[in-house]
Write a structure and sequence with these properties.
With about 130 residues, this protein is an all-alpha fold. It is built from 4 helices and no strands. It is flat.
């Protein structure tokens, strides 16, 4: 049982190390973090429903997961093919496209969920 718990702790340690690596080295991860923080603040201010929070959290997780997978793909491709190769470029481009798809979906979801209550709140203020 002790070995199991120690291995789980190690797994979390490795995962957090990867998370912090991405935040340290990937400019887009910082952009995603800043936007996610703004969305969280807006969600609190707008008093989102639990269902809306669930969708927002899943959407943010989807963007981060795509960004982290893209970072992993880039690292593996660089290791396997240090020199320029057309297939390496395709792998990196497709990885970046996955982040783009996730980010565009997140924007649309954010507009659908945050847009109407934000608009209503802003109209009452102004």
């Amino acid at each position: 049982m002790k070995a199991f718990l120690v291995s789980r702790i190690q797994s979390f340690r490795h995962a957090f190390r990867g998370w912090f690596y991405a935040l340290r080295t990937q400019r887009n991860a910082w952009i995603h973090s800043a936007i996610a923080t703004i969305v969280f603040i807006l969600g609190i201010w707008l008093r989102l429903s639990p269902l809306d929070w669930a969708i927002i959290i899943l959407t943010i997780a989807m963007v981060f997961a795509a960004e982290f997978m893209n970072t992993a793909i880039e690292a593996v491709v660089d290791l396997a093919s240090p020199e320029t190769h057309p297939l390496a470029k395709i792998a990196k481009d497709v990885g970046a496209a996955s982040v783009l798809v996730a980010a565009l979906a997140a924007i649309l979801i954010g507009l659908l969920i945050l847009g109407p209550p934000l608009w209503a709140k802003l109209i009452t203020i102004f």
